[in-house]
């Protein structure tokens, strides 16, 4: 499974636990369209083909060369453009190649700051007010710590070299929490900011590698692989899922050339609200994106307990000891979900959360999600209406991420939000650790939860617990086949 770009969380004890979602490589549409919060120019190859080259050298298969300690990192060169042929960065620097054309960004190796020692600053970048050390996954699968320029994402201007943009979700590449850096290529035309529509098309599986996979503005009518072209003017057909014939129709969005970021887009439903169902970006408001529904089982991923050779086979992960999948399959973003991305940065005012929604900082860059709360004071009632969308059991849950902390001071959200059911597997929570950490479980995100006083009867009135898709509680509170589900109306629809 592909690790979704959600963050780590900490309890009041400052214990960190890595969290991941259940969407997979197979659920990512081709052509740069993503099925999670990256339906922008966000993740186009930055981590997929990243290769680090010593200045002026030939490719080294992603291994980081040493400068031999003969030259210091040049702060003025960090964040400037470079090419595979080299020569632009200077002695002591490296070129992080991020694009297929061999272009990249100048940087240098570094030691990252240790969040467990807040008084000390271990970051070894030359100017920590301007630079920050982040971890990049190279094409070899190794992670390398490199220096990048800090920036403040905003439309209408940029802190970056004009070739790069200050993307609010750059943390999905560098692993940096609530810090944006200059790394993503800037958009230069509206076609760089493709948006999804509600129209669908069909593309035959390719038999000739030389035949392009999508049309170029004619709906795919001139592409011999496109068996059902797009209906809308100016749309292009892109394969929705690798190895499948279903395609989705894209059209140009809006590139803010001053910042290199994609701005607001045209929409068929300007009054759409955060959390509304959708089948494309045009079903959502102009500042929103549609998180598309996908069914991993229909895409060939295996359910809990089935045989596997790697985690790519599974909806969850592959247990290397038993060669069995750990983690139950369920639909992602059932019915689609309108969301806004970038709310973690106050400077990006155009994407601030509208009334009725809350910024869930559990996603890099922040995602506006529908706010929810108990509408009943009877905490013994089996069904409590939270206002989340009703559907199949567990499609959406009102989870109290405001009880979780990303750092000792920063809550994951300010209020509870309507969260896609599959995003909170019971296994994301850490177990007990000596000498005095009791561990965490799904009750942490129960409404009115109180992580400081777990004995408080108000902690979990909706009975948020680890449950399977039949609604039954699991014996193990961190069972890999379970999800954090409660007894709200949305969660009570027929299993």
Description of the molecule:
With 495 residues, the chain is mostly beta strands. Among the domains are: 42-186, no CATH class; 190-270, no CATH class. 2% of the residues lie in helices and 22% in strands. It has helices at residues 171-174, 489-492; strands at residues 8-10, 16-18, 51-54, 81-83, 94-97, 103-107, 131-137, 143-151, 164-166, 180-185, 195-203, 226-228, 236-239, 246-251, 255-256, 261-262, 289-291, 317-319, 324-326, 337-341, 357-360, 367-370, 396-399, 417-420, 465-467, 483-485. A four-stranded antiparallel sheet has the order 3-5-6-4, with no helix packed on it. Strands 7-8-10-9 form a four-stranded antiparallel sheet. It is globular and about 60 Å long.
């Amino acid at each position: 499974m592909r690790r979704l770009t959600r963050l780590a969380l900490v309890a009041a004890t400052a214990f960190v636990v890595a969290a991941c979602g259940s969407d997979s490589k197979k659920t990512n549409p081709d052509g740069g369209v993503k099925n999670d919060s990256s339906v922008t120019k966000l993740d186009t190859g930055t981590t997929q083909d990243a290769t680090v080259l010593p200045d002026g050298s030939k490719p080294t298969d992603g291994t980081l060369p040493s400068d031999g300690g003969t030259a210091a990192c040049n702060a003025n060169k960090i964040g400037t453009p470079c090419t595979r042929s080299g020569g632009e960065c200077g002695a002591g620097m490296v070129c992080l190649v991020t694009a297929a054309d061999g272009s990249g960004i100048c940087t240098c190796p570094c030691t990252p700051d240790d969040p467990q020692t807040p008084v000390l600053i271990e970051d070894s970048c030359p100017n920590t007010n301007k630079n920050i050390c982040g971890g990049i996954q190279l094409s070899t699968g190794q992670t390398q710590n490199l220096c990048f320029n800090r920036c403040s994402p905003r439309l209408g201007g940029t802190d970056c070299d004009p070739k790069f943009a200050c993307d609010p979700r750059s943390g999905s590449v560098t692993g940096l929490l609530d810090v944006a850096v200059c790394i993503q290529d800037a958009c230069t035309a509206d076609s760089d900011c493709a948006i999804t529509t509600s129209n669908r098309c069909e593309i035959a599986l390719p038999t000739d590698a030389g035949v392009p996979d999508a049309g170029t503005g004619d709906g795919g009518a001139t592409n011999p692989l496109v068996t059902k072209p797009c209906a809308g003017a100016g749309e292009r057909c892109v394969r929705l899922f690798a190895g499948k014939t279903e395609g989705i129709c894209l059209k140009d969005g809006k590139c803010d050339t001053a910042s290199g970021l994609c701005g607001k887009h045209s929409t068929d439903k300007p009054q759409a609200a955060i959390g509304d169902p959708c089948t494309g970006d045009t079903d959502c408001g102009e500042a929103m994106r549609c998180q598309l529904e996908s069914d991993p089982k229909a895409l060939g991923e295996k359910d809990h307990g089935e045989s596997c050779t790697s985690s790519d086979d599974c909806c969850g992960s592959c247990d290397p000891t038993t060669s069995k999948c750990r983690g139950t399959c369920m639909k992602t973003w059932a019915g689609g979900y309108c969301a806004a991305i970038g709310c973690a940065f106050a400077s990006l005012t155009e994407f601030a959360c509208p009334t009725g929604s809350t910024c869930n900082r559990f996603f890099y860059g922040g995602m506006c999600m529908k706010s929810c709360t108990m509408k009943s004071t009877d905490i013994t009632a089996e069904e409590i209406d939270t206002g989340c969308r009703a559907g199949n059991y567990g499609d959406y849950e009102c989870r109290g991420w405001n009880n979780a902390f990303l750092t000792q001071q920063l809550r994951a959200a300010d209020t509870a939000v309507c969260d896609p059911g599959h995003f909170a597997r019971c296994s994301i929570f850490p177990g007990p650790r000596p000498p005095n950490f009791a561990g965490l479980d799904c009750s942490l995100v129960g409404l009115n939860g109180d992580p400081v006083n777990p004995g408080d009867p108000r902690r979990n009135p909706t009975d948020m617990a680890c449950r399977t898709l039949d609604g039954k509680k699991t014996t193990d509170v961190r069972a890999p086949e379970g999800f954090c589900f409660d007894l709200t109306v949305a969660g009570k629809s027929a299993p």
